[in-house]
Design goal:
This protein has about 500 residues and is of the alpha/beta class. Helix content is about 30%, strand content about 25%. It folds into three domains: about 5-75, Ubiquitin-like (UB roll) (Roll), CATH 3.10.20.880; about 80-215, 2-Layer Sandwich (Nucleotidyltransferase, domain 5); about 235-435 and about 450-490, no CATH class. It has helices spanning about 25-30, 40-55, 120-155, 170-175, 200-205, 225-235, 315-330, 365-390, 415-420, 435-445, 450-460, 470-480; strands at about 5-10, 10, 35-40, 55-60, 60-65, 70-75, 80-85, 90-95, 105-110, 160-170, 195-200, 215, 245-250, 250-260, 265-270, 290-295, 300-305, 315, 345, 350-355, 360-365, 400-405, 430-435, 460-465. The strands form six sheets. A six-stranded mixed β-sheet has the order 9-8-7-10-12-11, sandwiched between helices. Strands 23-22-13-14-15-24 form a six-stranded mixed β-sheet, with helices on both faces. Helix 6 (about 225-235) packs across helix 10 (about 435-445). The mean pLDDT is about 90.
Length: about 500
């Protein structure tokens, strides 16, 4: 029978008699059918009293750790858990009711470590200067504050959360646990740990049930973290006969190509082009974010915002639309430079195309920001091209392209192809899946048997570092143009 990673069962146990002198814990283990039931000390201490007060009808909370089952609470009325995606820029988590299969509550907030540096390298450097504790404390404090907000909205207490599953890149998972990251960015690029890990709440210092289970996805290298392994799990790529691709673009561009027998991952810095980090007017996808843009030849702009609210910035899909539309109407050239016909204004000494403005903000894009965007799109496409070429396959050999991360959130596929971000293939070959890292974490919460699949995925991954790859370096400059200086590369 499929069981969640953490669950509560209503058990009616036979009361002890002269003929049945099983210990209280053995009585629970037998009712559960667990060969190995490991109790927390607090559950063991409260079990006798709760059993007798409730007439041996209890609702314990259990968690599964591979081949063993853990007794967390002797009896409860509710059982919640967290699925958490820790991104370099944003943290997203779901509060899941493990007794109710209905929709979960989702929350998103800026990673508080940003004040120590927007990119991973800046944060690593801060750690190497003695700031590891600061970075770790900031993320734990931020998580605990948001968890309190979540439970208030759900009308529960923090102690009703019995598990948390974390999916993150290698550096972020290390910083969550307060692990040394100084050896990750230098050859031979060694993390402290790569395997999946179980902890208790007290070890991680989360403000949830004191004996809750905390699981951290494994990583497969310095730049292939648990978020990618979680994304592979979410797509089912590791079960497919024919090659599939997972593209996840956030602060890094990570490309996965694989089947049920092998998985190749390439990763390299892309810059937070689609997370609001490159444009001064950039924002994450939230109310007021411009997500769709159209421009006519006279320079008139039509846009849509999330929630039809007053515009406050441009999110990832809006950035792609904006650059594609500027190119389509001839306001920028192949290099991303404004043409003479472009209706621009000077802002802070830079030519800027204005999308929207009001009394609070001026939302637009300048040439430097366009160049940064084109570098990001070039890093993504070049990684994809080099990996497929190294395997001796072409884009037509790929059965499905799963588009995750900021790139997979409402992006206009035709505009992405116009810019040379994605291969020129029929639309039905692409499947946007949103936040695959969070999706995989939620899947594991609901099905503990996936622990074995995660271990299998981890075992068949081969990692290729793109930032130091000779083929990548050779191909990258051509991809910085719109759409590409060698359009045949696009398929």
């Amino acid at each position: 029978m499929k069981r969640p990673l953490v669950f509560s069962l209503d058990l009616e146990l036979p009361e002890p008699t002269e003929d049945d002198k099983r210990a209280d814990l053995e009585r629970v283990a037998d009712a559960l059918g667990a060969d190995s039931l490991v109790p927390t000390i607090s559950a063991l201490r409260t079990l006798p009293d709760i059993l007798r007060k409730k007439g041996f009808r209890i609702s314990p909370v259990f968690s599964i750790h591979y081949d063993s089952t853990r007794l967390i609470e002797a009896s409860t009325g509710s059982c919640f858990a967290l699925a958490v995606d820790i991104g370099t820029t944003n943290i997203v988590f779901e509060l899941v009711n493990m007794k109710d299969p209905g929709p979960s509550l989702r929350f998103q907030f800026k990673n508080p470590q940003i004040k120590y540096g927007e990119d991973l390298l800046s944060r690593i450097q801060h750690c190497m200067q003695g700031g590891l504790k600061e970075l770790r404390d900031s993320i734990i404090a931020g998580l605990n504050e948001e968890i309190k907000r979540a439970v208030r909205q759900a009308g529960i207490s923090t102690k009703e959360i019995y598990a948390a599953v974390f999916s993150a890149n290698t550096v972020m998972s290390h910083l969550l646990l307060g692990l040394d990251v100084s050896h990750i960015p230098v050859s031979p690029y060694i993390p402290v740990v790569s395997r999946a890990l179980f902890f208790t709440t007290s070890e991680v210092e989360l403000d949830i049930h004191p004996d809750a289970t905390v699981y951290v996805f494994p990583n497969a290298g310095s730049y292939v973290g648990g978020d990618i392994i979680s994304g592979i799990l979410a797509t089912g790529l590791h079960r497919k006969e024919s090659p599939q691709v997972l593209i996840d673009v956030g602060t890094n561009a990570e490309i996965v190509i694989g089947t049920k027998d092998w998985i190749l991952v390439g990763a390299g810095a892309a810059g937070p082009a689609l997370e609001g980090g490159i444009l001064s007017s950039g924002t994450v996808a939230k109310e007021g974010a411009i997500y769709r843009i159209e421009i006519d030849g006279s320079g008139d702009v039509k846009y849509k915002t999330i929630g039809d609210s007053s515009p406050l910035g441009i999110c990832g899909s809006g950035v792609i639309d904006l650059v594609a539309e500027l190119y389509r109407v001839g306001f920028i050239d192949q290099r991303g430079r404004f043409t003479e016909s472009a209706p621009t204004v000077k802002i802070d000494g830079e030519k800027t195309f204005v999308v929207a403005k009001n009394e609070k903000v001026v939302i637009g894009i300048n040439e430097r920001e366009i160049e940064n965007f084109l570098r990001s799109k070039a890093a993504m496409f070049t990684s994809l091209y080099v990996l497929t070429q190294s395997l001796g396959i072409g884009f037509n050999d790929i059965e499905r392209f799963y588009i995750a991360g900021a790139l997979g959130s409402g992006v206009n596929l035709k505009n992405a192809q116009l810019l040379g971000m994605l291969p020129r293939l029929p639309e039905d070959r692409f499947q946007p899946i949103g936040n695959s890292s969070l999706m995989g974490a939620g899947m594991l919460l609901r099905d503990a048997s996936l622990l074995d699949e995660i271990a299998y995925i981890h075992s068949i991954i081969t990692y290729r570092e793109m930032n130091t790859d000779n083929e990548f370096m050779k191909e990258f400059p051509s991809a910085r143009f719109i759409p590409h200086t060698n359009p045949e590369r696009l398929g």
